[in-house]
Amino acid sequence: MDYRTLRIDAAGNGRVTLTFTRADLMNRMDDESRAELITALVEVGRDSQTRSIVLAAEGQVFSAGGDFDMMRRKHGDRAAVQRGTEDARRLVETLNDVRVPLVAAMHGHAFGVGSTVVLSCDIVVASRGALLADSHVKVGLVAGDGGVVVWPANMGLVKAKRHLLTGDPLPAEEAHRLGVISDLVDTPDEVLPAAERIADSIAALPPLAVQGTKKSFNVAQRIRIAEVLELSGQYELETLHSDDLIEAIDAFQQKRVGVYEGR
């Protein structure tokens, strides 16, 4: 199919690179980009020639996360919000269930659902100075689209709580020290080549061994997804209808302190 928000490049050796292409929108995640990422992962993952996948992005950031304009449009529309919640769960499940290893090339910041995408990958290459942040709480939302699953899985519960309950960013250098990021390079320009080298080395290995190992990891994470994601998604759905969400977006865009009433 033709994609509007990403590009697919096959290297010919079994490695495929998916690149977010909406640099002008900071690769934010909306209904269209989320649906295309799910479709591309399924399409590429099912191809018997695929041995590894790199997730990359154009522009200054990997992904700025959710789309505020979309949130405003859906505010009060329970059917639309419910569909979005279900699609968010599908994205996390799809990222987890891809049969070949995923390598994230995080050359710039990854916020909100962007951080979920990064931390759902099997290997993460990042540049010094890049930030990971799940700042749902700062805009009045529950971190229901995967953060409560992938952050604790990658760094432990105590550290995940520190960042998800405050929305404070995690610098790539600290993430590497904690083992959240597997490979740290000095500059953004070094990220994609490093990620592709790792993906190429995986693509050259015996595929049954690699994919069997990956599937074993998938099972463990799938259990956690089933336990947590539906409930956290429903909590997030409720906050998507809250007055505090609109106030938080307004405060962010107007660069002022928000005033929240818990409704």
From TrEMBL:
What the entry lists under CDD domains is as follows:
crotonase-like
Q: Which UniProt keywords apply?
A: Isomerase
GO terms for MF = isomerase activity
Note the superkingdom of the native organism.
Bacteria
The record's section on InterPro entries has: ClpP/crotonase-like_dom_sf, Enoyl-CoA_hydra/iso, Enoyl-CoA_hydra_C
Q: Among its keywords, does the record have Chaperone?
A: no
According to its UniProt record, what is one Pfam family this protein matches?
A: ECH_1
Homology family: Belongs to the enoyl-CoA hydratase/isomerase family.
Name of this chain's protein = Enoyl-CoA hydratase/isomerase family protein
Which species does this protein come from? Nocardioides immobilis
